[in-house]
């Protein structure tokens, strides 16, 4: 008698992590890097700044969106963990208050004393000498006072519209000449962001001491209110809804529509109030809560300085004299596929080139566009731009190419969050130079990273394509891990041509040879690949899926991965940030492992691997396994076709899966823990190992040539050793 298979309800909310809470869990892992004494002291301070910056964006976008849903009366639960918007806000508030407490503890009781040991300190103005106070008074009178603007709040002057993320002082005063029972008056003074957040005191015996700008202003604030007595000074900061509402359907000019919306961003509804905990006036806080129309749970009393993002600048200030407090700087190495005297385009014609940033330099990508701009045989350049650096060499090359008479088409994504203003400016500048600028497709963000160069050589058309996981941003390419592929594959060149024609003109979605494009098609491709892996595993019993991405939230794909697990397939996921999948649940995800790597470089590479009984399908993409990437963005999934390049990508993956220093694993409840390491087990920090391999590649190559007479690219990592370490960890 056959036993019926037990049906598992994969819609059970306990099988999923809530997206917002999962993100907060990720940001805690960032905070953990500030706690980790294996990191240099200034690097730990930088992680504090990253944690603070991340939290700002979370409130401006994610919390703001949930508050909008509550205000609109929307109370349906989200479709994975089953929490309503109000339940999510309650949970977020609880977690965030805990995170702020841990931030305070880390900064005040851990990092500040460590700085003091290095003769660096932030000092309170109350503990300064008379001479130091006189120095600060001079600084205030000459450099700060002229910039300050006191804003009275009364019947004739309503509460001012304070800018998003601005630091402010609420001052209560009374008239010295009137009865002491007179009602206190209120004024607001914004701490000017155009002045450095900290003032360094004159150096004494090698000690570097700093006073925060808001403390200096508070101490001398009476100079702004002559004839009045200052009763209290409350430092506070407002975070506002910064998500743009772009009416694409009715927009005659999307660029103009976005410019109008950008003016409103700084004045969106308040979503968070931060208050300096040292000294504040409760009546002022009550007034601000009422005026800003926020809930008491959205008020955060902070013991550390407000807005720790100033530590980014402080890092640079201190590094100049205390370089030993930073991690050794890493210089990206020439890519292994381009070492030697090969000319770039000829090298691409000869073989596909794989780039691994920031271990390998981003310069070949910059050169790819720059050389095309000056090459008389190049006819056209087409490129998508999502985020670029402030002084982008790629933009300059595109402008130069247009001026040289080439056909230059640039898709500038105007809706790239928090880069809208920059991209509007770039779009205008590129158009002025003669480039054909397009903005994409209505209701979709173009997040793809692709460049097509068309060249005519000896009366033959050649197409060169760059595909990547990261932005065309030479600045972030030094700190984000990303993968890039340079290829002259004829079919990929045709696919790239069709992709750009689809975006710039009127045509049905193309049929591609190798590229897969979202919306929807990438999800369908993943489902197909997982189904095929299940079929192979049933036949051969060797199923294995590995995937690396920033975030995993798409329920359809999570369900598919659960199906693969239940079929007995081993699934290894490296997910830096949001992960709504829960591993290790019996009969649901017991064959799935999820790890997150948070280190000096921001893990940004997307890699998708399917064993397929030894066929080894390897893909990379601009897309994460998130619903927005699957449905609301133009994304590209592309294959790594060459066997030796597939092997190289697998070596990276096995190395990251063997990481036991910066890796954390998620348990079946959604919590993360550092990967356990045995006492006799060597430390494996995947980011540092990849730096070393890139730096020492020539030595490894020479050594292998001497031993074998020929360099075997498949073994430039000790692959068998890493594979053994990986399997041992399982």
TrEMBL record:
Give all residue intervals belonging to the Polyphosphate kinase C-terminal domain.
344-507, 515-687
Q: Determine the domain of life of the protein's source.
A: Bacteria
Instruction: Report which reactions are catalysed by this protein.
Output: [phosphate](n) + ATP = [phosphate](n+1) + ADP
| Pfam families, per the entry | PP_kinase, PP_kinase_C, PP_kinase_C_1, PP_kinase_N
For binding Mg(2+), which residues are annotated in this chain's numbering?
387, 417
Question: What exactly does this protein do?
Answer: Catalyzes the reversible transfer of the terminal phosphate of ATP to form a long-chain polyphosphate (polyP).
Name the chain's protein: Polyphosphate kinase
Supply the source organism for this entry: Ornithinibacillus massiliensis
What does the organism's lineage look like at the top?
Answer: Bacteria, Bacillati, Bacillota, Bacilli, Bacillales
Gene designation per UniProt: ppk
